[in-house]
Amino acid sequence: MRRLPFSSALLALLAVGAAHAQYDYRLAPQALGDGAYVFVGALEHFTRANGGNIVNTGYIDTPAGAVVIDSGPSRLYGEQQRALIERRSGRPVARVYITHAHPDHFFGDQAYAGVPVYALPATREAIAANGDALADNLYRLVGDAMRGTHAVAPGLPAGAGRIEVGGRALQLIALAGHTDADLAVFDERSATLYAGDLVFHRRTPTTPNADLARWLAALDRLETIPYKTLVPGHGPVLNGPAAIRETRDYLRWLDAMLREAAARGVDLPELAELPVPERFGDFAVLRAELSRSAAHLYPALETQALRRLAPDGRE
Amino acid sequence: MLRLAWLFVAAWVVPALAAPPDDPLRSPAWPYMAERYFAGQTVRFDAAVRVLMPGAAEDPLAVPVYVDAGALADVREILVFADLNPITTILRYEPGELARPSIGFRFKVQQATPLRAAARTGDGVWHLGGAWLNAGGGGCTTPSQASGSGLWKDRFGEIDARLWPRADGLRRLRLQLIHPMDTGLAGGIPAFYLETLALQDSDGRTLARLQTFEPVAENPLLSFDLRGRGAVSIRGRDTQANRFAGTVAP
User: Fold this and answer.
1) Beta A156-157 vs A117-119: how paired, if at all?
2) Most A CBs within 10 Å: which of B102, B160, B226, as the mutation test of the A interface?
3) d(CA A205, CA A284)
4) Domain for residue A235, yes or no?
5) Secondary structure of residue A100 in the 3-state scheme
6) Domain that holds residue A28
7) Taking the CB of residue A35, how many other CB atoms lie within 10 A of it?
8) In the sheet where A168-175 sits, what is the strand order?
């Protein structure tokens, strides 16, 4: 047996160590029937343990290859998602749709080199403008699972309306409210609605770029879609309208609570002490998300409640 | 060698006299803070001083904090500081007899740090409350938004405010002053910030005095809980001797 020089042996060991250290998302698609699938993420915040996988992504199988909806929180997630889908469907992925510009939904784009990746125009712009800052923040929260990840803006604009891929009809629904641009995808054959983050289920909605009035209007629109199965952006898949109603109920309560508090002169940190209705009590990460939503939405409301003072003899 | 260096640092940092109490927040900077702010004085960690603050900074340029020492009697002064900020002192508040010892404000955070509120009671004892804030940071070395736009000059010195009666007989005053609050830590932009604020009621009685420092967020937004009668007059001054004044009707 030929002996390796010590330094080579050490390098080989390091290489083996590095290969083993690669984060494994253990992705397992859940079949929704008629070729529609979902990868369900954890009902948690970003942590090192979950690798940022707190999101639902999915795919719809067609004879021309799969249509993927959202590429996940990291390059590694995207690579593992793509490999798994292509192994199961036996064909290259046909195209990818990114629902919106939040980091848990698009950072897997890097894994889809050579595949057309689509998003609404405002989503493409937001990823191009803020992608690097979002990546920095996710590296800080998630750590090693983000290795090698950088933002890649989707290359193609998604239009609204009915399209066919491999003879399969999909409806692209262009909405807004959770962010400036939110895409929902409806697969007609399986009657599955991939709602993106316009709908949360048993997980507190997030609001860093939200416009609550537009979001509520978007929910009204989604309710008119003849879906049977709904895939929320976060939380378990379900049949029927409960998740849309739950999201609407929470957003309406949040808006009214913040406005009422601003009108009473409540300071932002004091909001954490206000009661929350029992019906939201089992939402995952409730208090943490409420605190974040207060930080996003309250400053505009509380300064509106103040009145300009007449400058009484500026000295 | 490294060990020797640590011993040297420890000897330099830890005050020679009475050792400060152990820090429940386990901050690496606590011995230094104890020396800077409380040398030769009595300090007690006390849950009666409440610090309401989110656990993580959603916006490092404006972390919202509400300090409440209302469970203590005879509070003369509240000192607020952040151990690991490049400029640690945030504000000193003297509530007086006609104000509750509580204050709401926003501050700029540079990195994860403990935020402390120390309430000095009439017997000279400092009662210390606090919490850790997780932060991505950069709040202190980022130029103010005002420094990047000419618009602020049109509104500089304007005060928005409102006074709310409360069920407990106190009155909540909230005010916002348009001011860049530049820390001096962003390249090429000198320190420029509000230094003092005084509140009086319509009988001319002083309700409270406040000293603010560089880390207070741009366009300071403050909450006070006051007694007193009638309108509240606000008088302020910044580091360039600009004076600000306004009166809030009840």
Assistant:
1) parallel
2) B160
3) 10
4) yes
5) coil
6) 17-241
7) 19
8) A161-165, A168-175, A182-187, A192-200, A229-234, A238-239
Assess if residue A221 is contained within a domain: yes
Spell out which residues of chain A touch residue B178, defining contact as CB-CB under 8 Å. none
Edge-to-edge order in the sheet of strand B75-82: B43-45, B126-133, B113-121, B75-82, B89-94, B206-212, B194-200, B232-238, B243-248
The pLDDT score that the predictor gives to residue B13 is 47
CA gap B194, B179 in Å, rounded: 7
Any domain includes A285 = no
Cα B218 to Cα B6: distance, rounded to the nearest angstrom: 38
What pLDDT, on the 0 to 100 scale, is given for residue A7?
52
The rounded distance, in Å, linking the Cα atoms of A225 and A168 is 17
Residue A286 included in any domain: no
- In chain B, the number of structural domains is 1
Query: Distance between CA atoms of A284 and A95, rounded to whole angstroms?
Result: 32
- pLDDT score for B143: 75
| CATH number of the structural domain spanning residue B151 | 2.60.40.2470
CATH code, domain with A65: 3.60.15.10
> Between A and B, how many CB-CB pairs are < 8 A?
89
Task: With CB atoms and an 8 Å threshold, state whether B245 touches A314.
Answer: yes
Question: Smallest Cα–Cα separation from B45: which of B24, B63, B14?
Answer: B24
CB neighbour list of residue B67: distance below 8 Å, 6 or more residues apart: B49, B50, B51, B52, B78, B80, B102, B103, B104, B117, B129
Overall number of domains in chain A: 1
Subunit contact A309:B243, Cβ cutoff 8 A? no
Report CA Rg, chain B: 19
Helix (H/G/I), strand (E/B), else coil: A15: helix
Q: For chain B of 250 residues, list the mean pLDDT of each consecutive stretch of 10.
A: 46 56 96 96 97 93 97 98 97 97 97 97 98 82 72 87 92 97 93 97 96 97 95 97 95
Give me the residues of chain A with pLDDT under 70, please: 1-21, 312-315
The answer to whether the beta carbons of residues A162 and A171 sit under 8 Å apart is: yes
Q: Terminus-to-terminus CA distance in chain B, angstroms?
A: 65
B197's tokens: 């604020």
Query: Under a CB-based contact definition with an 8 Å cutoff, are residues A98 and A152 in contact?
Result: no
How far out from the chain centre does Cα B23 lie?
Answer: 20
Cβ distance of A267 and B58 shorter than 8 Å: no
Beta carbons of A269 and B159 less than 8 Å apart? no
